[in-house]
C-alpha cells in the first residue's frame, strides 16, 4: 500500500506544478442524466466557453459554430498543407453570408455525432484553444457543426473533444505545439471533477501494450486505413478468480477488423459479445450467491441485479465478486475491476452488474465503458504505444477529484 501512497503523492506534486510548465490541463465532470463526461475550455479571440463531450475515439474537436464569433477564426483552404494534415475530404462551399462554419473553398471535414448516428459535411478551421491551465494553443485545427445536429449530447454541451490517434486530436496538436512527448492522462470522475492532462508522465502501477486494429472504425474511411481508437489485448476474463470458458477468437481481431477489445468513454457500461455476456453473468450470479448476495428483478439494460441490502460495502464500493481482464503482452498482467466499477446502484433497493449484452455480432467483442473507467487513472503513451493504469483510486483513499 505504501507504493500506492507514493504514486498518488507523486502525481499530485506533478499536477500542482504543471501550470508553470509547458503542459495542458482540462477539468472533466460527469453529467448525471446522460453519464457523459464533459470538459470545458475556451476558443478564439472572445474566449468563448465551449462544453464538449470527451470522446476517446473521436478524431478531432468539433463544436457548433452557429453563435461563434472570433477575429482569429480562419478556415483551412482545400488543397493546402493543413488540409492534407487533417486528411480533409475535398472542398466545401456555403451559399450564405460568410461566418464561422460557412465559408467557400474550405477543407472538407466529416464530424460525427454518435448519439444521433449522423455524419455531417462541414469544413475545417483554425483558432486559438485555451485550456483551464497551461499554455494556449494557437492555430488549433477543428471542425464546426451545425447546432441542429447536437441531439444526444448532454445539456449545455455543444461539441465533442476527440482524443484518438490522429494528427489533429487534442493531445497530438498539443504535444507538437508545446514540444512534448505524445502522452495524455485521463481520470474520469464518478462525481466532482476529474482531469485530462497532456504532457505529464505519472508513475504507473500497471501497463499493457496498445495494439492496432488494421481496419478503421470511423463511419467514413479509405480502404487500408487502420483504426485510430485504442485497443488492448485481452486474452481472457475471470470472475472471482475463475476464468470463463470462452473462445479465443472473440478476443482476437480478424482481417475485417472485427473482434478484440477497445476502450471507450462514450459507451456508458462495458458491452461484451452475447457469447461472452451469458457465461459472465452466470458466473457472477453464482459467485454473488456464494457471498450470500440475493438476486433481484432485472432493470434494463442490466440483466443481473441484486438486493442492495444484501451487499456489504468496502472502500472501493460494493463488496462483490471481482472481474479480471487477463491482458496480453510480455508483461502479462490483469486489469482488476472491483466494487463501484463492477456494480451500478439503481436505487436503495437494487444494485446491478454494470456490464451489458453487446449482441451476437458486434464490431468489437469487448468495449470497456466509462463506468468501468471511473476513478481509475489512465495514461495513454503514444510514444511507446502503452496504456498505463492505476485501477480504482478509492483503494488508495483518493479520487479523480483529489489528484
From TrEMBL:
<keyword id="KW-0964">Secreted</keyword>
<feature type="signal peptide">
    <location>
        <begin position="1"/>
        <end position="20"/>
    </location>
</feature>
<dbReference type="Pfam" id="PF14543">
    <property type="entry name" value="TAXi_N"/>
</dbReference>
<dbReference type="InterPro" id="IPR032861">
    <property type="entry name" value="TAXi_N"/>
</dbReference>
<dbReference type="GO" id="GO:0004190">
    <property type="term" value="F:aspartic-type endopeptidase activity"/>
</dbReference>
<dbReference type="InterPro" id="IPR033121">
    <property type="entry name" value="PEPTIDASE_A1"/>
</dbReference>
<dbReference type="InterPro" id="IPR021109">
    <property type="entry name" value="Peptidase_aspartic_dom_sf"/>
</dbReference>
<comment type="similarity">
    <text>Belongs to the peptidase A1 family.</text>
</comment>
<dbReference type="GO" id="GO:0006508">
    <property type="term" value="P:proteolysis"/>
</dbReference>
<dbReference type="GO" id="GO:0005576">
    <property type="term" value="C:extracellular region"/>
</dbReference>
<protein>
    <recommendedName>
        <fullName>Peptidase A1 domain-containing protein</fullName>
    </recommendedName>
</protein>
<keyword id="KW-0732">Signal</keyword>
<dbReference type="Pfam" id="PF14541">
    <property type="entry name" value="TAXi_C"/>
</dbReference>
<feature type="domain" description="Peptidase A1">
    <location>
        <begin position="37"/>
        <end position="390"/>
    </location>
</feature>
<dbReference type="InterPro" id="IPR001461">
    <property type="entry name" value="Aspartic_peptidase_A1"/>
</dbReference>
<dbReference type="InterPro" id="IPR032799">
    <property type="entry name" value="TAXi_C"/>
</dbReference>
